[in-house]
Amino acid sequence: MAAVSPTVVAHRGASAARPENTMTAFEWAKTAGAGAIEFDVHATSDGALVVHHDFTLDRTTSGTGLVVERPLAYVRALDAGSWFDPAYSGERVPLLDEVLAIEGIELELELKGFGATFLEAAVETVVARGALGRTEFTSFNLPMLVALKRAHPEARLGLFTRRREPWMPESILLRQAVSVASLGGFDVVHVFAADVTPRIVAALHAEGFVVHANDAADEGEMRGALGAGVDRFSANDLGLAVEVAAGG
User: Fold this and answer.
1) pLDDT in tens, 181-226
2) Which residue out of 42, 52, 53, 212 is catalytically annotated?
3) CATH number at residue 222
4) By the 8 A CB rule, do 23 and 94 touch?
Protein backbone atom coordinates (compact mmCIF):
# COMPACT_ATOMS: atom_id res chain seq x y z
CA MET A 1 0.00 0.00 0.00
CA ALA A 2 1.39 3.40 -0.96
CA ALA A 3 1.87 6.07 1.70
CA VAL A 4 -0.75 8.81 1.79
CA SER A 5 -0.51 12.58 2.21
CA PRO A 6 -0.39 14.32 4.70
CA THR A 7 2.33 12.10 6.07
CA VAL A 8 1.10 9.55 8.59
CA VAL A 9 3.75 8.76 11.19
CA ALA A 10 3.46 5.36 12.86
CA HIS A 11 4.12 6.07 16.54
CA ARG A 12 6.59 3.47 17.86
CA GLY A 13 5.74 1.56 14.70
CA ALA A 14 2.19 0.32 14.28
CA SER A 15 1.91 0.14 18.05
CA ALA A 16 -1.83 -0.47 18.28
CA ALA A 17 -1.53 -3.57 16.13
CA ARG A 18 1.99 -4.86 16.81
CA PRO A 19 4.39 -4.77 19.79
CA GLU A 20 5.84 -1.26 19.85
CA ASN A 21 9.36 -0.50 18.68
CA THR A 22 9.93 -3.92 17.15
CA MET A 23 10.85 -4.85 13.62
CA THR A 24 7.46 -6.43 13.05
CA ALA A 25 5.79 -3.14 14.05
CA PHE A 26 7.98 -1.12 11.70
CA GLU A 27 7.67 -3.49 8.76
CA TRP A 28 3.91 -3.74 9.13
CA ALA A 29 3.64 0.05 9.36
CA LYS A 30 5.37 0.41 6.02
CA THR A 31 3.09 -2.09 4.28
CA ALA A 32 -0.01 -0.55 5.89
CA GLY A 33 0.65 2.87 4.36
CA ALA A 34 2.65 4.88 6.88
CA GLY A 35 4.87 7.55 5.39
CA ALA A 36 7.19 7.50 8.39
CA ILE A 37 7.97 5.46 11.47
CA GLU A 38 8.77 6.97 14.86
CA PHE A 39 11.10 5.22 17.29
CA ASP A 40 13.36 5.79 20.29
CA VAL A 41 17.09 5.16 20.59
CA HIS A 42 19.11 4.35 23.73
CA ALA A 43 22.68 3.23 24.33
CA THR A 44 23.37 0.07 26.31
CA SER A 45 26.04 -0.08 29.02
CA ASP A 46 28.58 -1.15 26.39
CA GLY A 47 27.61 1.58 23.94
CA ALA A 48 25.40 -0.32 21.49
CA LEU A 49 22.48 1.62 20.01
CA VAL A 50 19.12 -0.06 20.49
CA VAL A 51 15.51 0.88 19.76
CA HIS A 52 13.27 0.87 22.82
CA HIS A 53 10.84 3.39 24.27
CA ASP A 54 11.14 3.37 28.05
CA PHE A 55 14.31 4.02 29.99
CA THR A 56 13.59 0.73 31.77
CA LEU A 57 13.10 -2.67 30.16
CA ASP A 58 10.36 -3.91 32.46
CA ARG A 59 7.15 -2.85 30.66
CA THR A 60 7.71 -4.24 27.17
CA THR A 61 10.33 -6.96 27.53
CA SER A 62 11.06 -10.02 29.65
CA GLY A 63 13.96 -8.14 31.26
CA THR A 64 14.36 -5.66 34.06
CA GLY A 65 16.42 -2.58 34.82
CA LEU A 66 17.62 0.45 32.91
CA VAL A 67 18.63 0.05 29.29
CA VAL A 68 21.73 2.17 29.87
CA GLU A 69 22.85 -0.17 32.67
CA ARG A 70 22.45 -3.43 30.72
CA PRO A 71 24.90 -4.79 28.12
CA LEU A 72 23.82 -5.51 24.57
CA ALA A 73 23.99 -9.28 25.06
CA TYR A 74 21.43 -9.03 27.85
CA VAL A 75 19.10 -6.69 25.96
CA ARG A 76 19.19 -8.73 22.76
CA ALA A 77 18.34 -11.95 24.59
CA LEU A 78 15.03 -10.53 25.83
CA ASP A 79 11.55 -11.24 24.50
CA ALA A 80 10.06 -7.94 23.35
CA GLY A 81 6.80 -9.29 21.93
CA SER A 82 5.02 -11.61 24.36
CA TRP A 83 3.85 -8.75 26.61
CA PHE A 84 1.70 -7.59 23.69
CA ASP A 85 0.50 -10.98 22.50
CA PRO A 86 1.96 -14.50 22.75
CA ALA A 87 1.85 -14.63 18.95
CA TYR A 88 4.83 -12.24 18.93
CA SER A 89 6.98 -14.27 21.27
CA GLY A 90 10.60 -14.07 20.23
CA GLU A 91 10.54 -10.48 18.97
CA ARG A 92 13.79 -8.78 19.94
CA VAL A 93 14.77 -5.26 20.88
CA PRO A 94 16.06 -3.97 17.53
CA LEU A 95 19.44 -2.45 16.82
CA LEU A 96 19.39 1.04 15.33
CA ASP A 97 21.20 -0.44 12.32
CA GLU A 98 18.31 -2.84 11.72
CA VAL A 99 15.73 -0.08 11.68
CA LEU A 100 17.82 2.14 9.42
CA ALA A 101 17.96 -0.75 6.95
CA ILE A 102 14.20 -0.41 6.31
CA GLU A 103 14.07 1.41 2.99
CA GLY A 104 11.42 3.53 1.35
CA ILE A 105 10.06 5.24 4.46
CA GLU A 106 10.90 8.35 6.48
CA LEU A 107 12.30 8.04 9.99
CA GLU A 108 11.58 10.02 13.15
CA LEU A 109 14.34 9.19 15.62
CA GLU A 110 13.93 10.28 19.23
CA LEU A 111 17.27 10.50 21.02
CA LYS A 112 16.99 9.15 24.56
CA GLY A 113 20.62 8.51 25.42
CA PHE A 114 23.00 10.73 27.34
CA GLY A 115 26.01 12.83 26.46
CA ALA A 116 28.17 13.71 23.48
CA THR A 117 29.42 10.17 22.86
CA PHE A 118 25.88 8.85 22.49
CA LEU A 119 24.90 11.72 20.20
CA GLU A 120 27.94 11.27 17.97
CA ALA A 121 27.40 7.51 17.72
CA ALA A 122 23.73 7.88 16.81
CA VAL A 123 24.28 10.55 14.17
CA GLU A 124 27.32 8.80 12.71
CA THR A 125 25.29 5.61 12.38
CA VAL A 126 22.51 7.43 10.53
CA VAL A 127 25.02 9.14 8.24
CA ALA A 128 26.95 5.92 7.58
CA ARG A 129 23.72 4.18 6.53
CA GLY A 130 22.88 6.99 4.11
CA ALA A 131 19.70 7.80 6.05
CA LEU A 132 20.32 11.41 7.13
CA GLY A 133 18.16 12.85 4.37
CA ARG A 134 15.08 10.90 5.48
CA THR A 135 15.57 11.22 9.23
CA GLU A 136 14.07 13.76 11.61
CA PHE A 137 15.74 13.92 15.02
CA THR A 138 13.71 14.70 18.13
CA SER A 139 14.45 14.73 21.84
CA PHE A 140 13.38 16.34 25.08
CA ASN A 141 17.09 17.15 25.51
CA LEU A 142 17.10 20.43 23.62
CA PRO A 143 20.84 21.16 24.09
CA MET A 144 21.56 17.79 22.45
CA LEU A 145 19.54 18.76 19.40
CA VAL A 146 21.17 22.18 19.20
CA ALA A 147 24.60 20.50 19.34
CA LEU A 148 23.49 18.13 16.58
CA LYS A 149 22.41 21.01 14.35
CA ARG A 150 25.68 22.81 14.97
CA ALA A 151 27.67 19.77 13.85
CA HIS A 152 25.29 18.81 11.03
CA PRO A 153 23.42 21.87 9.72
CA GLU A 154 21.72 19.70 7.12
CA ALA A 155 20.09 17.51 9.79
CA ARG A 156 16.33 17.92 10.25
CA LEU A 157 15.24 18.67 13.82
CA GLY A 158 11.78 18.37 15.35
CA LEU A 159 10.71 20.41 18.39
CA PHE A 160 8.31 18.94 20.95
CA THR A 161 6.10 21.73 22.29
CA ARG A 162 4.42 21.47 25.67
CA ARG A 163 0.78 20.56 26.11
CA ARG A 164 -1.51 23.55 26.28
CA GLU A 165 -2.51 24.00 29.90
CA PRO A 166 -5.92 25.40 30.95
CA TRP A 167 -4.42 28.80 31.78
CA MET A 168 -2.48 29.09 28.54
CA PRO A 169 -3.86 31.25 25.72
CA GLU A 170 -3.30 29.94 22.21
CA SER A 171 -1.09 32.96 21.57
CA ILE A 172 1.36 31.95 24.32
CA LEU A 173 1.63 28.39 23.03
CA LEU A 174 2.38 29.78 19.60
CA ARG A 175 4.90 32.38 20.82
CA GLN A 176 6.78 29.75 22.81
CA ALA A 177 6.88 27.38 19.85
CA VAL A 178 8.13 30.00 17.39
CA SER A 179 10.69 31.38 19.85
CA VAL A 180 12.26 28.03 20.74
CA ALA A 181 12.10 26.65 17.21
CA SER A 182 13.73 29.76 15.73
CA LEU A 183 16.48 30.03 18.32
CA GLY A 184 17.29 26.32 18.16
CA GLY A 185 17.35 25.97 14.39
CA PHE A 186 14.44 23.54 14.29
CA ASP A 187 12.71 22.53 11.09
CA VAL A 188 9.56 20.78 12.33
CA VAL A 189 7.29 21.87 15.18
CA HIS A 190 5.30 19.18 16.97
CA VAL A 191 2.03 20.31 18.56
CA PHE A 192 -0.21 17.88 20.39
CA ALA A 193 -3.11 16.99 18.11
CA ALA A 194 -5.66 18.03 20.73
CA ASP A 195 -4.12 21.54 20.75
CA VAL A 196 -3.82 22.09 17.00
CA THR A 197 -5.86 24.91 15.48
CA PRO A 198 -5.91 26.47 12.00
CA ARG A 199 -4.42 29.66 13.48
CA ILE A 200 -1.47 27.79 15.00
CA VAL A 201 -0.79 25.89 11.78
CA ALA A 202 -1.02 29.00 9.61
CA ALA A 203 1.30 30.96 11.90
CA LEU A 204 3.91 28.20 12.01
CA HIS A 205 3.74 27.79 8.23
CA ALA A 206 4.25 31.53 7.85
CA GLU A 207 7.49 31.18 9.83
CA GLY A 208 8.65 28.38 7.52
CA PHE A 209 8.11 25.40 9.82
CA VAL A 210 6.69 21.99 8.99
CA VAL A 211 3.80 21.26 11.38
CA HIS A 212 3.39 17.85 12.99
CA ALA A 213 0.32 16.97 15.08
CA ASN A 214 1.53 14.70 17.87
CA ASP A 215 -0.23 11.68 19.31
CA ALA A 216 -3.62 11.86 17.62
CA ALA A 217 -5.63 9.70 20.00
CA ASP A 218 -8.85 9.21 18.06
CA GLU A 219 -10.61 9.96 14.81
CA GLY A 220 -11.79 13.35 16.02
CA GLU A 221 -8.25 14.52 16.78
CA MET A 222 -7.01 13.16 13.46
CA ARG A 223 -9.70 14.94 11.46
CA GLY A 224 -9.26 18.12 13.46
CA ALA A 225 -5.52 18.19 12.78
CA LEU A 226 -5.97 17.50 9.09
CA GLY A 227 -8.67 20.14 8.84
CA ALA A 228 -6.28 22.63 10.43
CA GLY A 229 -3.77 21.96 7.65
CA VAL A 230 -0.96 20.03 9.34
CA ASP A 231 1.75 18.46 7.22
CA ARG A 232 2.18 15.33 9.34
CA PHE A 233 0.48 13.58 12.23
CA SER A 234 1.39 10.64 14.42
CA ALA A 235 -0.88 7.97 15.86
CA ASN A 236 -0.81 4.54 17.41
CA ASP A 237 -3.86 3.34 15.43
CA LEU A 238 -2.20 3.28 12.05
CA GLY A 239 -5.08 1.66 10.19
CA LEU A 240 -7.47 4.42 11.21
CA ALA A 241 -4.86 7.13 10.62
CA VAL A 242 -4.18 5.99 7.05
CA GLU A 243 -7.90 5.79 6.32
CA VAL A 244 -8.54 9.30 7.66
CA ALA A 245 -5.55 10.80 5.86
CA ALA A 246 -6.70 9.23 2.62
CA GLY A 247 -10.08 10.96 2.98
CA GLY A 248 -11.98 8.00 4.42
Assistant:
1) 999 999 999 999 999 999 999 999 999 999 999 999 999 999 999 9
2) 53
3) 3.20.20.190
4) yes
